[in-house]
Amino acid sequence: MKLSCIRPQAGGAARNTRRKVLSLLELGAPVPNLRTRTVAVAVGGLLIASGAIAGTAAQANAVSSLAPAITAVSAASTGDLSAPAKKEIAMQLVCSAENSSLDWKAQYGYIEDIDDDRGYTGGIIGFTSGTGDMLELVQNYANTKPDNNVLKPFLPVLRKVNGTKSHEGLGQKYVDAWHQAAKDSVFLKEQDKLRDSMYFNPAVSQGKSDGLSNLGQFMYYDAIFMHGPGDSSDSFGGIRKSAMKNAKTPAQGGDEKTYLQAFATARKKIMKQENAHSDTSRVDDAQLKFLNEGNYDLHTPLKWKVYGDPYEIK
Predict the structure, then answer these.
(1) What is the C-alpha radius of gyration for the chain, rounded to an integer number of angstroms?
(2) Is residue 76 a part of any domain in this protein?
(3) Residue 214: which domain range?
(4) What mean pLDDT do residues 101-130 have?
């Protein structure tokens, strides 16, 4: 982080700024750095954006004594996408891209082949028969409800087609069974649980570790469930590594906007390699739009487009 100083200068504007800083200092309040998103703490007329300061020994001691406060302020600048209101926004944003709707709770029964070589895509975030998460979902559902479970008989076939784009042994009977299961609250809860444990929670956790805002954590979430949580070059882990080669995360002392731009660039490169995901408007016209607007906290109202269609959360 950088050290920012407000120096006494001639002119009312400088004096007024200094007066505001000193007033906040007297109240023991954090002072926002006016040039960056970094939160600073005022000490002796100086704005401190890190634990280091060039000045007198007394000033250095003052900063040292305020280290816990500085840490707390820095932590407060990191978002928490798991907060209920923010998580709801995240679900709606994803649904606009995945299902052309904001009503994500209406998607539990959704299932079709979208020609992405991953077999069937179904449920609230697009679990797929070809990548393992649909198999895990149905297995969890069968474990929780072993009797009168309409999807349980398809487990052997799901194991067989896992890793392929094949529908052999599934077909319309499986689609009908999925629709029927979507009327069961147990199945809905299993979708929620797997979404959170496999995708949402890891994305938020990694985002917090990287010092990201709600927007940054959402960009991680949108990427991790589309590309998978692995470390290959075309997975979330690989995309993150690629971005970090070009920009530091906020936790590493980097600028969040610069890092998220690098992350978006790395992700779009991977998306364009897949025919089903070659349209990058969910990144360009939503995520990067919010980033350029400075809406790091995903505060409403939100307006964006996906595939040319406009959406709004008021």
Answers:
(1) 24
(2) no
(3) 84-313
(4) 95
pTM above 0.70, yes or no: yes
Integer Cα distance of 306 and 3 in angstroms: 40
- CATH value at residue 215: 1.20.141.10
Compute CA 291 distance to the chain's CA centroid, rounded to the nearest angstrom. Answer: 13
Which are the contacts of 79, defined by CB distance < 8 A and separation ≥ 6?
86, 207, 208, 212, 213, 214, 215, 216, 217, 296, 297
Q: Which residues are catalytic?
A: 98, 116
Query: How does DSSP assign 191-220, residue by residue?
Result: HHHHIIIIIIHHHHHHHHHTT--HHHHHHH
Report which of residues 304 and 19 the model is more confident about: 304
Average pLDDT over residues 286-299: 97
Provide the mean pLDDT of the chain.
82
Number of domains, the chain: 1
Residue 125 in any domain: the answer is: yes
> Phi and psi (nearest 5°) for 113?
-95, 115
Q: Is 58 inside a domain boundary?
A: no
| pLDDT for residue 79 | 87
Three-class SS state of 56: coil
**169, 176, 155: which is closest to 112 by C-alpha?**
176
Structure tokens at 123: 């449920």
Residues paired with residue 302 on neighbouring β-strands, in sequence order: 313
- Side chain identity, residue 268: K
pLDDT value for 77: 62
| Secondary structure of 217-273 in HEC code, one letter for each residue | HHHHHHHHHHHCCCCCCCCHHHHHHHHHCCCCCHHHCCCHHHHHHHHHHHHHHHHCC
Q: Cα angle at 304 between 293 and 105, to 5 degrees?
A: 125
| 209: in domain | yes
Residue 282 in contact with residue 97, Cβ under 8 Å? yes
